[in-house]
Amino acid sequence: MALLGQHFLHDPHYLEQILQSIPHAHFADAVQVVEIGVGLGDLTARLLSRLGPSKSLLAYEVDTRLAQRLRSALGDLSGRLELVVGDVMQCKGVKDREKKQIKGLALSQCAFLSPEPYFLVSNLPYYIATPILTKCLRDALCVGMVVMVQKEVALKFCATENHSDYGALSVLASSVCCERTLLFEVPPKPLTPQRCNPP
């Protein structure tokens, strides 16, 4: 089940911590919540149960086997899930109305994950985390994110100038984000299969 780099988070404690890290307003406001990599559906089910009754969850999953089992696993909640099966990095996006800039950084004219403002929540596969983060940071419609990544990626994302982890991802993130925070660490045990290096 980990052929595509998936490491499934199943521990209710850490899943709840992820949910608590999402700005509460996004469960009810007009911002689309997006998940990349539904995996076994543990986070997906919790997101759907927290979203307002009129809101849907837009989710991407590259593994067709996992996508097929997800709908039956979700039961009644599956009617509010818009599931896109395929490689998210091959997503062609949706044309934005105009090219926007934030602090002088030219952002993409194509929305990466959604044609409307969205908030990303994801346990990102380690091999593709940086490319996804980069595309989301350059997407003017991405209003924020709570993502679980390997610790090395998180440190680069949050690094400030003159820090040893400071690099290209740090520069991009600091030019776009008002706030970048390493929220908490997850040890290997709550993941299946366990990662060699904790995220």
From TrEMBL:
PROSITE patterns on file: RRNA_A_DIMETH (PS01131), SAM_RNA_A_N6_MT (PS51689)
Superkingdom, taxonomy of origin: Bacteria
Keywords: Methyltransferase, RNA-binding, S-adenosyl-L-methionine, Transferase
Keyword RNA-binding: yes
Positions of transmembrane segments: none
Pfam families: RrnaAD (PF00398)
Keyword Methyltransferase carried by entry: yes
Family: Belongs to the class I-like SAM-binding methyltransferase superfamily. rRNA adenine N(6)-methyltransferase family.
Protein name as annotated: Ribosomal RNA adenine methylase transferase N-terminal domain-containing protein
